[in-house]
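[[Encoded backbone]]
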Amino acid sequence: MAESLTALVVDDEPDVCWALETLLLGDRFTVVTVGSGTEALRWLEESEPACHLILIDAKLSDIEGVDLARRIRTETSCVAPLILVSGYFYKDDSLVQETLRTGLVSAFVAKPFRHDEMLNAIHAVLSIGQGSAHVVSSP
């Protein structure tokens, strides 16, 4: 990755935000972390089109991650790939499969994840864009 891309991390667990931020900074991303869906929507309204990637926790304190993904697509002009990250859902969950099939999210990564799994998912969605779904889950 030659240029610096901006990633938005939306997770209400500070430790997860820190881990993802550290991982992304090491991959030359500029990283913004927020703890709620409300903060994410506000940041997107103020910062578009500066965002290139969004990682969304499936269970936030103020909104479900899938609902936030829908709101991002309908209430903002953001077209950045969305990666759903969850310790609650699994890759074969019907909701996860539906969001991938419809293209609402570009990838799903199950928690806990290995750093290489997350980076592989990120690089995959950035190289293929919205056209294909990618699933990563730890064994």
User: Anything to note?
Assistant: The CA atoms of residues 57 and 85 lie 5 Å apart.
